[in-house]
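re the bet — no i am not wrong, look at it urself. input seq straight from the record:
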Amino acid sequence: MLMNIISNAVKYNKEKGVILLSYYEKQVDDRHILFEFHCKDTGVGMSKEFQNHIFEPFTQETSGARSVYGGTGLGMPITKKLIEKMGGTIKLERNFPQLF
């Protein structure tokens, strides 16, 4: 799942762009640990409207995205389903803290 997120960050990044992947580990109880991952990049970005649809199958922001970047629009929906099957959640934050 992380590989899919990172590969999207690479695929849609700008030349000489930056990708930051960080995680936080939180002890939930004696038997469980919660991992929280954050991925931020200097990529091409996406409109606020598209951000509401990023986890829908076959959705890409522009009609030319398949030919320019490759892909099917299934990466993020599949990632979301796998994370949910493992009891986790994934979300896109529009106002991620400034890291660069």
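see?? The helical segments are 2-11, 48-51, 65-69, 75-85. told u. also Strands lie at 19-27, 33-41. so pay up
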